[in-house]
Specification:
Radius of gyration: 24 Å
Number of strands: 32
Largest sheet: 5 strands, mixed
Helix content: under 10%
Shape: globular
Structural class: mainly beta
């Protein structure tokens, strides 16, 4: 769904296929009345048995779907050497992801290169799809770029007529545990931190694997055997650069964008550890930062200060820390939400703004300048009694928020994903304009419900069990998301 205030595409809507009898009756009638299209709202509006949902391909500049052979709870987009900002199709994207396999030994970390990603049938000149076309499903699959990485590697992703097919390249590193979260070091993208469900955080250097992917001309499946008979389509053993065992498993993990090699990891027993790069390519893990009263769910480093990071947790708080003082946080919003705070994101364009998402589906925007100081145990606890007021709040999601991230190119935009299987893009600068909506109506735009938030810029659906999303920092507007049924890579035409 695309907000008509910033675009002209039709949002997704339910269409009923008329029966043969109804078609005969329609032929006897005069010209049928034309009704204004309406926005279909997931979780609110029902779909009848004889209806099916269709989306308008002009709402996207591109849309690709792909998957590895196990679900991935987490991934990261790797910064590449192709420059940016870049907007000309076809695109090339590098990713790192970690699996949640049926058994521990089947897990791996995958480094991916998706090349020649075209527009397919999407864009302003997209041809309409005939829902009665028996071959439409197959065409959608091909043109959307569906791909599946099995044991022997991935096939080529087919493109639209006139476009070269997209290609799928990968290398796998064996893991002995499920991957809860994975993050790439901004200054050295090949180095990734992996939070495992065995309570260990490992640092893996996949720089050589990325170099192989960049040089590979054929899809990995078509050229699986490397020099010396090495099978590129099989997981390989790679000794970690460093590792640390927490007292329990966790999910909170982030690299500093200011200080190369500085990492923070938080676990389910309310402890946060800061990793410092040391001589000889090693890392020293410091003592625990304590202050949270429950599981630490997410961590974000300040985009401008090398010693400052934020955290959130099931104690419903958001806290700001300084690495030079472990005993208590500097700033605290004790009652940031009415339920567990799952995720946070620090705005890199407006550095005093922070976004948070909670278990009740609520997203809140914070001005860090309003946070109370202190909030640690003992005498400092009283300073956190009064939580600061949030700048903005979105109550659209109907289940727990699983991911939130500010747009790296536009300080007023952010995206969120939730367990209601919806990915929403928000623009805080938007306001409802009835006159503009009325002017766009004749062009086929749907009428926006009054209860639809004016700041909702775009709505992406179609994935089940959404887990995480990221904006591409070098391709403006491009978003990648992961779910229980695979990945989506898309760019909305109004961004």
């Amino acid at each position: 769904m695309r907000n008509p205030k910033k675009g002209k595409a039709k949002p997704g809507k339910a269409k009923a296929k008329p029966s043969k009898k109804k078609e005969e009756e329609m032929e006897l009638d005069e010209e049928p009345e034309t009704a204004t299209a309406k926005v279909w709202r997931p979780g609110i509006d029902e779909v009848a048995e004889d209806e099916e949902l269709e989306y308008d391909p002009t709402a996207y500049d591109c849309l690709h779907r792909f998957q590895v052979d196990w679900p991935c709870l987490s991934f990261d987009i790797l910064k590449d050497d192709l420059g940016g900002p870049r907007s000309t199709f076809p695109h090339t994207v590098y990713l790192a992801c970690g699996t949640q396999a049926a058994t521990a030994r089947q897990n791996y970390v995958a480094f991916l290169r998706l090349a020649s990603l075209g527009q397919g049938r999407h864009g302003k000149k997209a041809a309409p799809v005939d829902s009665d076309d028996e071959e439409s499903d197959d065409e959608d699959s091909d043109e959307d770029g569906d791909s599946d990485m099995g044991e022997e590697g991935a096939p080529e992703m087919k493109g639209a007529p006139g476009e070269a097919p997209a290609t799928f390249h990968f290398r796998m590193v064996a893991m002995n545990c499920g991957v809860n979260r994975i993050r790439s070091m901004p200054q050295q993208p090949g180095v990734v931190a992996v939070w495992g469900d065995n309570a260990q955080v490992k640092l893996i250097d996949g720089s050589k694997l990325l170099a192989e992917l960049a040089a590979e001309t054929e899809p990995t499946a078509a050229n699986a055997k490397g020099k010396g008979g090495t099978n590129k389509a099989k997981p390989q053993d790679l000794k970690p650069l460093a590792s640390h065992t927490h007292s329990s498993e966790g999910y909170a993990l982030d690299w500093s964008a200011v200080r190369p090699g500085r990492l923070a990891s938080g676990d389910c027993r309310h402890k946060i550890h800061v990793w410092e790069p040391a001589e000889g390519g090693r890392w020293a893990v410091g003592g625990a930062h304590t202050g949270h009263e429950g599981s630490v769910e997410d961590i974000q480093w300040s985009p401008t200060e090398d010693t400052v990071f934020a955290s959130c947790g099931v104690d419903r708080s958001v806290r700001i820390w300084d690495t030079r003082e472990r005993g208590r946080p500097m700033l605290t919003a004790a009652g940031a939400h009415d339920s567990d705070v799952n995720v946070i994101s620090w705005n890199r364009g407006v550095t005093y703004m922070l976004a948070s998402g909670a278990d009740d589906g609520c997203i809140r925007i914070w001005d860090l300048r309003t946070f109370a100081s202190g909030g640690g145990a003992g005498e400092g606890a009283g300073a956190a009694a009064a939580s600061p007021a949030h700048v903005a709040q979105f109550l659209y999601h109907r289940s727990h928020v699983t991911s939130v991230e500010w747009c790296p190119y536009e300080g007023s935009m952010l995206a969120s994903a939730a367990a209601d299987n919806q990915l929403a893009v928000w623009d805080l600068a938007l306001e409802r304009d009835p006159e503009e909506e009325a002017a766009l109506a004749p062009e086929g735009n749907a009428a926006a419900p009054e209860d639809l938030p004016a700041q909702l810029l775009f709505l992406h659906a179609g994935q089940n069990d959404l887990k995480e999303l990221h904006w591409h920092s070098q391709i403006p507007g491009l978003i990648v998301s992961t779910a229980g049924d695979g990945f989506n890579l898309f760019k909305a035409s109004n961004m």
